[in-house]
TrEMBL record:
Listed InterPro entries: KFase/CYL, KFase_sf
Family to which the UniProt record says this protein belongs: Belongs to the Cyclase 1 superfamily.
An annotated GO BP: L-tryptophan catabolic process to kynurenine
PANTHER family the record matches: CYCLASE, PTHR34861
Any GO molecular function: arylformamidase activity
Protein name per the record: Cyclase-domain-containing protein
Naturally occurring in which organism (per UniProt): Lasiosphaeria ovina
A Pfam family of this chain: Cyclase
Length: 349
């Protein structure tokens, strides 16, 4: 679908029981009434993908995937991966060699949050009015028989290929902080709220312009802290504050109006934590105060959120070359009912 053919945030048709900015029905097939499951990935039209391919000039590719076991210390909520190696003979084959298996949480390291990751409202709905359940997600045996907007559905449309744009907020903050001895330097664990104005300012500083169908990528420096945390970093963890995009309606409106196909970053939640209350004041601990951008992006727009992507090497290459846009490819796992997946993402210059 041509990104220019959809209404802006404030002009989206009202959806009963949902806030303004709900895009349910916008991408539905008007001829047969089939409900859409791809959300803003529909912005990745053949013309937009072909234009993104023009970003490839140097033949350089950079992985954006953090190791599955990158977090080396106990982390709440999600278990670390377990890698098991067996010999082929142990499996009953009369040849020498090895098999291996990995038991891992799809959101322990680099990931896409799919559209069923969080649900919205008392009815527990997600994008386009779908109602995922634990039983329904776990019992899916074939993607074709699964009506939910899960990540495995992406393979029917060729996964994610488009123009990626890096906003290296970490580098910008480090290089442009005012020379004030009393000012605290930027830190990914201090809960800095990156506003729309901040993003636009960094984009101008980098000399990059956004285009409809872009995949927005924000570097905060968070994964680099997790790779070698200091005692000071662990003390900051206790405060449960994370730098990220400012979680307010104005940010959601800007993301939709920019027609981004997807968003991603190196932080744990993409948006800053703790989230803010309706009046804009800081909320409580993350678990006690609902996020703002996740419901808008995943549930209202159908916009996938990438988290914990490895962006350090990408940032270095962009700085060295002065190019902050590139061809981005991402082929997630293909298993029926997937809520999330490693992105298997590559930036190509």
């Amino acid at each position: 679908m041509d990104p220019g053919s959809v209404p802006d945030f404030d002009d989206l048709p009202k959806v009963a029981g949902q806030p303004q900015g709900c895009a349910w029905g916008v991408f539905d097939n008007k001829k047969d009434g089939k409900k859409d499951v791809f959300g803003t990935l529909n912005f990745l039209t053949p013309a937009i993908v072909a234009a993104a391919a023009a970003e490839v000039k140097d033949g350089v590719s950079i992985s954006l995937n953090w190791p599955l076991n990158a977090i080396k210390f106990p982390f709440p909520f999600r278990k670390s991966p377990t890698h098991t190696v067996t010999t082929l003979r142990e499996g009953g084959m009369e040849i020498e060699g090895f098999d291996d298996s990995i038991d891992f949480n799809t959101q322990f390291s680099s990931q896409w949050d799919g559209l069923c990751h969080v649900v919205h409202g008392d009815e527990r709905l997600t994008y386009n009015g779908a109602r995922p359940t634990k039983e329904g997600l776990a019992s899916a045996q074939l993607t074709a028989d699964n009506a939910l907007p899960t990540i495995d559905r992406w393979h029917a449309r060729g996964c994610v290929v488009g123009r990626g744009v890096l906003i290296d907020f970490k580098r910008y903050a480090d290089e442009t902080s005012p020379p004030d001895d009393n000012a605290s330097p930027y830190h990914p664990l201090d809960g800095y709220r990156i506003t729309v104005d901040d993003v636009e300012k960094v984009a101008r500083h980098q000399g990059v312009e956004f285009k409809p169908g872009d995949i927005l990528i924000i570097r905060t420096g968070y994964t680099e802290v997790l790779e070698a945390p200091t005692a000071q970093d662990f003390a900051k963890f206790a405060a449960a504050t994370l730098s990220g995009l400012h979680g307010v309606e104005a940010t959601a409106r800007w993301i939709w109006n920019r027609r981004f196909a997807a968003v991603a970053g190196d932080a744990h939640g993409f948006e800053a934590l703790p989230s803010v209350k309706a009046d804009g004041s800081p909320g409580d601990a993350p678990a006690g105060n609902p996020l703002v951008l996740h419901p808008y992006l995943l549930n209202m727009f159908g916009t996938p959120i990438g988290e914990l992507w490895d962006l350090k090497a990408l940032g270095e290459h962009c700085r060295k070359t002065g190019r902050y846009s590139f061809l981005l490819t991402s082929a997630p796992l293909n298993h029926p009912g997937l809520v999330a997946s490693p992105p298997n993402a590559v930036a190509i210059f």
